Amino acid sequence: MQFIDTHTHLYLEDFDTDRNEMIKRAVARGINRFLLPNIDQSSVDPMLGLCKAYPDYCFPMLGLHPTSVKDDWQMQLDHFEKLLQESPTTFVAIGEIGLDFYWDKSFSTQQIKALRIQFDWAKKLQLPVAIHTRDAFPEMLAEIKEAQDGNLKGVLHCFTGSLEEAQKAIDLGFYLGIGGVLTYKKSDLPEIVKQVPPERLILETDAPFLPPVPYRGKRNESAFLFETAVKLAATLEMDLDTLAEITTKNAIELFNLPQS
Ligand SMILES: [Zn+2]
Q: Residue 200 C-alpha to ligand 1 middle, in angstroms?
């Protein structure tokens, strides 16, 4: 049985003291591929360093996170565009990109501009996008709809929208990233995942953030994908082997990964 953690920030300093052991713990539970979303210019080197150390396990994305869209956003995008031109096959996705109106709304116009530019890269390079959305679902769905010309594909990472939003995203060709939130008592997500095709679900941790039950309040790590997978299998009344097979296949297809 194997799983792919499709969204995990294993290069962050939260893991500096035990990164190798942490990766081993995940691999021991069958979680043996890690897709690393970038945050901003400062995270690129640590991320690529980790991918160099674990070439069969770690796969990088490139993009500017919406909460990092500040005054220098254009400079950061220029830098990323150059990196993409220099090594177009290094990255498995443009991510993570998106809209976040929860933390700070003062750069919302710039966030939208940055998103559109990065959507264009993804379409041109035929890469999927990993999307972060917080307090901005209607705006995000409108942006995807506008950009969708048959060439845009991707995932709404850590999906926490409504059933209607899930269905709209799926109709627009997107996948839903299911993380630890699925295990939270008050979450609507279990009711939502039952009503969407399993072929559109992929698993993620968003480590070190959003740990599943029973690790809430602790640092999240990729090994904890297992708890989310068990919960998803139970919710869908599916055995864990089948769930592993389906979600792994979905991730391989979306991110164009090697078969194993
Ligand atoms: Zn993330």
A: 19
